[in-house]
Protein backbone atom coordinates (compact mmCIF):
# COMPACT_ATOMS: atom_id res chain seq x y z
CA UNK A 1 0.00 0.00 0.00
CA UNK A 2 1.35 3.41 -0.95
CA UNK A 3 0.76 6.69 0.82
CA UNK A 4 0.21 9.52 -1.62
CA UNK A 5 0.63 13.22 -0.91
CA UNK A 6 -0.82 15.62 -3.41
CA UNK A 7 -2.56 18.91 -3.79
CA UNK A 8 -5.91 19.97 -5.23
CA UNK A 9 -5.18 23.03 -7.31
CA UNK A 10 -7.11 25.26 -9.62
CA UNK A 11 -5.97 27.69 -12.25
CA UNK A 12 -7.18 31.21 -11.58
CA UNK A 13 -6.31 33.84 -14.17
CA UNK A 14 -2.97 32.26 -14.92
CA UNK A 15 -2.07 31.52 -11.28
CA UNK A 16 -2.25 28.10 -9.64
CA UNK A 17 -3.85 28.27 -6.20
CA UNK A 18 -3.80 25.36 -3.76
CA UNK A 19 -7.28 24.71 -2.38
CA UNK A 20 -6.56 21.60 -0.33
CA UNK A 21 -4.05 18.87 0.43
CA UNK A 22 -4.59 15.17 -0.16
CA UNK A 23 -2.94 12.51 1.93
CA UNK A 24 -3.87 8.85 1.95
CA UNK A 25 -3.73 5.56 0.14
CA UNK A 26 -4.60 5.30 -3.53
CA UNK A 27 -7.95 3.71 -2.63
CA UNK A 28 -8.85 6.51 -0.20
CA UNK A 29 -7.90 9.17 -2.72
CA UNK A 30 -9.95 7.46 -5.45
CA UNK A 31 -12.97 7.43 -3.11
CA UNK A 32 -12.45 11.14 -2.34
CA UNK A 33 -12.13 11.89 -6.05
CA UNK A 34 -15.44 10.17 -6.82
CA UNK A 35 -17.17 12.03 -3.99
CA UNK A 36 -15.83 15.38 -5.19
CA UNK A 37 -16.87 14.60 -8.78
CA UNK A 38 -20.42 13.78 -7.61
CA UNK A 39 -20.59 17.02 -5.59
CA UNK A 40 -19.28 18.99 -8.56
CA UNK A 41 -22.03 17.60 -10.79
CA UNK A 42 -24.71 18.39 -8.19
CA UNK A 43 -23.48 21.95 -7.74
CA UNK A 44 -23.26 22.49 -11.49
CA UNK A 45 -26.79 21.24 -12.08
CA UNK A 46 -28.12 23.38 -9.22
CA UNK A 47 -26.38 26.46 -10.63
CA UNK A 48 -27.80 25.78 -14.09
CA UNK A 49 -31.26 25.28 -12.59
CA UNK A 50 -31.10 28.60 -10.72
CA UNK A 51 -29.89 30.38 -13.86
CA UNK A 52 -32.71 28.92 -15.97
CA UNK A 53 -35.33 29.84 -13.36
CA UNK A 54 -34.07 33.43 -13.29
CA UNK A 55 -34.06 33.55 -17.08
CA UNK A 56 -37.62 32.22 -17.28
CA UNK A 57 -38.89 34.67 -14.68
CA UNK A 58 -37.18 37.54 -16.51
CA UNK A 59 -38.80 36.48 -19.79
CA UNK A 60 -42.25 36.36 -18.16
CA UNK A 61 -41.96 40.00 -17.06
Task: Give a brief outline of the structure.
The chain has 61 residues and is of the alpha+beta class.
Average predicted confidence as pLDDT: 69
Main-sheet strand order equals 1-2
- Tell me roughly what share of residues is in helical segments: 55-70%
Radius of gyration: 18 Å
Count of folded domains: 1
Amount of beta strand? 25-35%
Number of distinct helices: 1
The helix-strand sequence is EEH
Structural class estimated from helices and strands:
alpha+beta
> Segments where pLDDT lies below 50 for 5+ residues?
none
Number of strands: 2
Distance between the termini: 60 Å
**Main beta sheet: strand number and arrangement?**
2 strands, antiparallel
Query: Any idea what the shape is?
Result: rod-shaped
Could you please describe the fold and organization of this structure?
The chain is α+β, with helices and mostly antiparallel strands and 61 residues long. The protein has one domain (3-60). The chain contains one helix and two strands, in the order E-E-H. It has one helix at residues 26-60, and strands at residues 3-12, 15-25. A two-stranded antiparallel ribbon has the order 1-2.
Amino acid sequence: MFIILGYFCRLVSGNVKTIGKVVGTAEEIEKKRKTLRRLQKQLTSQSVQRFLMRLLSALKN
